[in-house]
Amino acid sequence: MFLKPIAGPPSEWKADLLVLILDKTETFFDLQDEELQKRVDGLKAEYVEGKRDGSFLFEPRHRQDIGAVVVYYTGDYKGFSVAEILKTCVASAVKLASQSKRNHLILALNSPAGQEYASQAAEAAGMALWSFNRYKKDKKDPSADLSVDLAVLNQEAAEQAIGQGLVLANCVNMARNMCSEPGDVLNPQTLAAMGQELAQEFGYQFKLYEEAQLKEEGFLGHIKVGSGSQYPPCMFSLTYTPPQVEGQEPSPVHLVLVGKGLTFDSGGLSLKPAANMQEMKGDMGGAAAVLGAMRALGTLKPKIKVTAIICCAENMPDGQAVRPGDIIVYKNGKSVQVDNTDAEGRLVLADGLLLAAELGATHVIDICTLTGACIRALGESFTGLMGNNRSLVNAITFAGGVQGESYWKLPLPLEYREMLKSPFADLTNSPGPLAGAVTAGLFLKEFVADGLNWAHLDIAGPSWRSKPWKYYPAGPTGVGVRTLTELAWHWEEYIK
Fold it and tell me: How far is CA 172 from CA 1, 272, 295, 336, in A?
């Protein structure tokens, strides 16, 4: 898909499809065409009065240079911000253009209000036609023939905004691709190779902890979880350091992002049911989100130091697999009895959190597809958010809101710490059926160093959509990429 801004007068517009988005209070476009404006005003009145809903497609017979006009009304969408609704409308228009072979479309944003949404429009257009067809006979990209023009007031400003929107879209799509790859293709070693390639591309510092080094340095959660797989576990880090600006003190902030990279999760000896187990190739959604964010940050260049830690393993059952009842002693001295081998994500993340402290983190965020309990509590649209620092938790919530990703704060009550007790170890990894998302957060908190600002994101629900929603098709969503990017990119705006 080719996407560019245009700033010429509407009388010069030429397209197979002109896209107009109507809002009750905002005006996103200026048609400068009396006949067309009259038609659109009539449609708007019908929408506002409740006499019409859905999109409306018509041919402007007085404009031979415009094949068709499609009109969307933001009032048809309830409970979302204007930005999210606009992105949903843009994605719908791009899909319509692709399906109807209208290969050249113009999205009218040539008003002061419309210009403000150029980045979001580009982001939605870039995400709208994502599909994973690498293994299909027909590998054609549905967006390959599309040309999208954003009609704006200020072309120079729009070019920068469009570029930023496309960076986010491409990085989200990268995460979606990663979550779609089969587990025999994307394994801990190929995931580490992707991290190394990313580090080389952007000049990041890269460090790989292979199986022998994991054992030597005491990162035994990885060793136990990955012991049943033909693919050895590993952990790796990549660090972005902002360029030094002459005359300015470097930021003291070191943000560490810890991603769960279970490239396939069978449940181990506590085997999952067969139904939908194929989706467990996406159990590395946290790792995909972190790597997607690191790719975006390599282009956007925030002012703070950011390190990614990716915890990689495959959880499989065989004669060497971790058993229920096995005990892991972590390098901070705490012991964990593995009562359920399917509660494996927290076991590798504990290693990642310990490494974050060793690397000198000031703030750490772990992100993971962790608990079915979080899906049952919050569904597919909200990420469960827990943490020990109110400013960081609020910052994530606000950054997510800007990028259209929703978070719901869950508690970490001290009294529930009792559920983690084990008669044979300091902790159990499977505290029981109650408050499963919260007790998982409490477990991870045990491995956060004293004084370290920490937040935990359980993306088990929104990482995978069971059916199309907003500008997402069914399947992996790449959730977390935009929130983590937004937070690091504009850190000083969120953390005062």
Answer: 16, 28, 10, 35
In which band, very low, low, confident or very high, does the pLDDT at 483 lie, cut at 50, 70 and 90?
very high
Residues counted in the chain: 496
Q: Is 235 helix (H, G, I), strand (E, B) or coil?
A: strand
Phi-psi region of 41 (alpha: psi -120 to 50; beta: other; left: phi over 0): alpha
State the CB neighbour count (10 A cutoff) for residue 333: 7
Residues with Cβ < 8 Å from 339, sequence gap 6 or more?
324, 325, 422, 428, 429, 430
Give yes or no for residue 248 having a pLDDT over 90.
no
CATH pick for 173-494 out of 3.40.1190.20, 1.20.1740.10, 3.40.630.10, 3.10.20.30: 3.40.630.10
Query: 251 with 302: CB under 8 angstroms?
Result: no
Residue 324 DSSP SS3: coil
How confident is the model at residue 1, as a pLDDT? 86
Residues 258-296 as b or e (16 or more Cβ within 10 Å = b): bbbbbbbbbbbbbeeeeeeeebbbbbbbbbbbbbbbbbb
Write the CB contacts of 323 (distance below 8 Å, at least 6 apart in sequence). Answer: 269, 338, 341
The dihedral through the CA atoms of 207, 213, 216, 219 has a sign that is positive
pLDDT tens figures, 163-178? 999 999 999 999 999 9
End-to-end CA distance of the chain: 39
Alpha carbon distance 213, 220 (integer Å): 10
The 3-state DSSP class for residue 346 equals helix
Q: Rounded to 5 degrees, what angle do the CA atoms 346, 484, 195 make?
A: 70
Q: What backbone torsions phi and psi does residue 16 show, to the nearest 5 degrees? A: -75, -30
- DSSP output for 34-58: HHHHHHHHHHHHHHHTTS--S-EEE
Gap between the Cα atoms of 299 and 170, Å rounded: 12
Non-local (6+) Cβ contacts of 458 within 8 A are 368, 369, 370, 371, 374, 383, 384, 385, 386, 437, 440, 441
Residues 110-158: pLDDT tens digits? 999 999 999 999 999 999 999 999 999 988 888 889 999 999 999 999 9
Joined together, the tokens standing for residue 37 give 């404006």
Q: Which of 52, 272, 303, 331 is catalytic?
A: 272
- pTM, two decimal places: 0.97
Closest CA to 293 of 313, 310, 314: 310
482 is catalytic: no
Question: 51 an active-site residue?
Answer: no
CB 111 within 8 A of CB 153: yes
**Mean of the pLDDT values across residues 479-493?**
98
Which of the following is catalytic: 295, 346, 470, 482?
Answer: 346
Please tell us whether the domain made up of 2-153 is placed in CATH 3.40.220.10: yes
User: What is the domain partition of the chain in residue ranges?
Assistant: 2-153, 173-494
261, 351 Cβ separation under 8 angstroms = no
